[in-house]
Amino acid sequence: MFKCLLCSGDVRRELSFATVFESAPPKYLCVKCHESFVKWHKKSASDANYGYAVDAVFILDDAGQNYLEKYVNLQDDELAVCFTAEIRSKCYAGLTYLTISDEASQLLKTAGIPFSNEVEEIENLREWGLFCLHENERKERTVKGNINHVLLLFMEM
Ligand SMILES: [Zn+2]
After folding, report:
1. Could you name the domain of life of the organism this protein comes from (predicted)?
2. From ligand 1's centre to the CA of 28, what distance in Å?
3. Paired strand residues for 6
4. How many domains does one find in the chain?
5. Among 68, 72, 86, 93, which one is least packed by beta carbons within 10 Å?
6. Secondary structure of residue 53 in the 3-state scheme
């Protein structure tokens, strides 16, 4: 039995072909906590102000705020494992992502997505992405160059 990283409730893993043969990742959040995150379903659109595709994994609501509070402010590093599958499914294959905070870097590292936190290094790439925890993180840093994709973990509504 696992404990949910957010509420410490029990995490049940249903027995299936995938779990028996360990091809499924262990679950880190209980069903209730996991379902409290609202997925961002909008189709990525080119941002007229910036000229690149902007995407998000989740909507920033109470669940998102709670996660950020624990992960960033209370430095609960374990929470980096929670959304690896969701982040992987939204990142563009083969793209290296610039990260602005250590917490964003840790999420991509855990998800196995190529990343760099060196602006000079990444601006020399033919094309690259930007991964931020939320919109404010993106606004804190203006980046130029061949940016191809922006992915926010939480999008403000
Ligand atoms: Zn929970």
Report:
1. Bacteria
2. 8
3. none
4. 2
5. 93
6. strand
CA of 148 to the centre of ligand 1 (A): 35
Instruction: Let me know if 144 is exposed, middle or buried by CB neighbors in 10 A (0-12, 13-18, 19+).
Output: exposed
Question: Global pTM?
Answer: 0.86
Q: How confident is the model at residue 15 (pLDDT cuts 50, 70, 90)?
A: low
Whole-number Å distance, alpha carbon 1 to ligand 1 midpoint, is 13
Q: What are 21-63's pLDDT values in tens digits?
A: 555 556 799 989 999 999 998 876 666 666 778 899 999 999 9
Q: Which domain holds residue 148?
A: 38-155
* Token reading at 54: 């902007």
Residues 5, 52: one domain? no
Q: Any idea which residue has 């941002």 for tokens?
A: 47
Distance 85 CA to ligand 1 centre (A): 18
Q: How confident is the model over 98-118, as pLDDT tens digits?
A: 999 999 999 999 999 999 999
Judgement on whether residues 42 and 25 belong to the same structural domain of the protein? no
Residues 87 and 122 in one domain: yes
* 11 lies in the same domain as 63: no
Interatomic CA distance for residues 129 and 63, integer angstroms = 26
